[in-house]
Amino acid sequence: MKAIVHEHQQGIAGLSYKEMDQPEIGADECLVQVGVGGLNRRDVAVIENKHDPKSGPFIPGSDAAGTIAKAGKHVTKVQEGEEVIIYPGLGWDENSDAPPLGYEIVGFPENGTFAEYIRIPAKNLVKKPAHLTSEEAGVLSFAALTAYRVLFTRAKIRKEDTILLPGIGSGVLTFALKFSKAIGARVIVTSRSEDKQKQALELGADKAINTYDDWSQELKDEQIDVVVESIGKQTFQKSIDAVRRGGTIVTFGATTEDTVELDIRSFFYGQYNLLGSTMGSMEEWKEMLAFIEKHDIHPVIDKVFNAEECEEAFSYLKSSRNLGKLGIRFN
Ligand SMILES: NC(=O)c1ccc[n+]([C@@H]2O[C@H](COP(=O)([O-])OP(=O)(O)OC[C@H]3O[C@@H](n4cnc5c(N)ncnc54)[C@H](OP(=O)(O)O)[C@@H]3O)[C@@H](O)[C@H]2O)c1
User: What are the pLDDT digits (tens) for 199-253?
Assistant: First the structure.
């Protein structure tokens, strides 16, 4: 089989699409023929900062949907030939305040989904939601689950709330926009790109401003209840300054550096809530799938690349040319 492989050199220069051995499956696992895999910022971070290219070939990727080519002998809940979508977590089955110790995400340290065939525990598979195309299913899980946990489990948003989403180009935030609108909340987005601001308004955002503008001016007539912060250092202070006193900031990403300074005194006087979040449990993933089915929500797909174009796909994401999700087609 062929796979996107990272080896020899750090980062995108170390990627190629080449022959690898097809994985063997255990009794509780399935071999899935991947249709489309979804690309996430994590995949870029893995090949730039986590996987040592000198340690041997490695297949990145956390998201995929496809068809079960072979089911292990103990597998009963899914069947060969069935179209499925994968849960990208390993070791976080039930809802809990935080992931259990030892929890991993598919696509590092173990090989991931960017291959013609993948080996995956059968319990991580459910039937593809009927209202989604195979491309939509392939790019869904990681980003949609992250957005679902951030909004509903952590920030507990309500329809009366106004939600601020800085950096709407993000795959996760395009889901956050759709999920917040599905419950009737007001949504304000920011982007560095005028084009993306326009697209976000077309997708249902109530207001769109430039990330680099003065938010205190642009948002002076707004009461922001929740800020969903993933840009990191570049916007963290602006996000705290934007939220109403007593409001909530949920952070789950740091695209522009992890370390920020915080004026503790103004933070505690403002009675703000600062929450962390990370992907979500398998149980939450199933709740998220039911939610998108109920509200007929489809991912925003910017572009689907062929697997041979892997370097271009990673570069496209790295330079934030996308609004919403990117896919890679394998079959
Ligand atoms: N903890 C978790 O489980 C989890 C899960 C998923 C993602 N994440 C993290 O969440 C973040 C978003 O993920 P994603 O895959 O959705 O990312 P993405 O598609 O790459 O989007 C990131 C967005 O951030 C904005 N941005 C990037 N660089 C910026 C800069 N220098 N200044 C201002 N804005 C900038 C851009 O928005 P505009 O182009 O609109 O300006 C960009 O589209 C990443 O940091 C990712 O690692 C964490």
Answer: 999 999 999 999 999 999 999 999 999 999 999 999 999 999 999 999 999 999 9
Domain 146-276: CATH class, spelled out? alpha beta
| Nearest alpha-carbon partner for 142 in 280, 286, 306, 324 | 280
Pick the atom of ligand 1 nearest to 146's CA.
5
Interatomic CA distance for residues 122 and 186, integer angstroms: 39
Looking at the CA of residue 254, tell me the nearest atom of ligand 1: 45
* Residue having the nearest C-alpha atom to atom 17 of ligand 1: 170
State the DSSP code for 149: I
Find tokens 């205190």 and name the residue.
216
Q: What percent of the chain has pLDDT over 70?
A: 100
CA distances from 310 to 45, 48, 156, 162 (A): 15, 15, 37, 38
Pocket flag, ligand 1, residue 198 (CB < 6 Å): no
User: For residues 146 and 172, is the Cβ–Cβ distance under 8 A?
Assistant: yes
pLDDT above 90 coverage of the chain, percent: 100
Average pLDDT, the chain: 98
Q: What is the pLDDT of residue 41?
A: 97
Residue 172 beta carbon below 6 angstroms from any ligand 1 atom: yes
Q: What's the 261 CA to ligand 1 centre distance in angstroms?
A: 20
- Alpha carbon distance 68, 79 (integer Å): 7
Exposure class string for 145-158: b at 16+ Cβ within 10 A, else e: bbbbbbbbbbbebe
- CATH T-level topology, domain 2-140+299-329: Quinone Oxidoreductase; Chain A, domain 1 (3.90.180)
* Rounded Cα–Cα distance for residues 70 and 75 (Å): 10
C-beta 280 within 6 A of ligand 1: no
Q: Encode pLDDT of 36-81 as tens digits.
A: 999 999 999 999 999 999 999 999 999 999 999 999 999 999 999 9
pLDDT at 66 (0 to 100):
98
Where in the chain are the domains? 2-140+299-329, 146-276
